[in-house]
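Here we describe the complex-level prediction in full. Unlike the single-chain runs in Section 2.1, the two entities below were treated as one system.
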Amino acid sequence: MARVPIIKVGETLIATVQDELRDSDALTLQTELSAAVERTGARGVLLDLSAVETVDSFLGRLLGEVAASTRLLGAVTVITGIQPAVAITLVELGLELKGVRTALNPEKGMALLRRLQRLQRLQGEENARLLPARAGSRNGRNDGRR
Amino acid sequence: MAATMVGADEHIPIRGEDDIVAARQCARALAKRLGFGLLDQSRIATAVSELTRNVVRYAATGDAYIRPLEGAPRGTGIEIVVADRGPGIADVELAMRDGYSSGTGLGMGLPGTRRLVDEMEIDTAPGRGTTVTIRKWNRKRNR
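The structure predicted for the assembly as a whole is:
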């Protein structure tokens, strides 16, 4: 049936939807992706929808929830391969998937994930560098940085 | 003159989520046979998905009828009727408003569906069930 295999490549989980998803398949994919992020500590999820011909409000809303729930687990989700007809239909339906990262195809999606993960690491280093300085400025010293 | 038949009318009983997929695939296949482009195929399949999901969510069971419209004044089209004997809609005007939902949906089911098709009629009353008829015309072929 329409089950979606999830594979891990480096720090990224890749799921490719090959078939029409029933509602229950979509819900299963959501819980399995979250469980896989938790289990593997993946930093990124690439969800490829190239083969999906119909995205209705149920699946559209679920995609947003997948992105939000994996983000809470520390992973960025990028959805790839949305067909042009599906994109236009979604906007007309009133679902713009705001807050969901997308890329034209899996290759561009992987490149986007690499950039986002690099940014995350840089921000982590920056925060680590700034924290002692902030702690210092609380002691009445103004170092010009707010 | 009688309308030319492109394919037999399709009847898909809606009993559960498998039938949502079956109904939208059937509508897409007929739309494709009628010469609708990819975008209209997507709009039609998505509209059918929304309407049949409403049946499963609010009425549990119902029926979808999918038929070609040919020889009509507006050229080639597709008509889908989704009917149930569920609770019905008390205030259709309210249900057609963007953002409104009585159930667990996002409230874009009916108004969203309306934007995907050319014509939509809702026949409903509390306790009498709901029948939604949608039509989409193939403009590309009419010119």
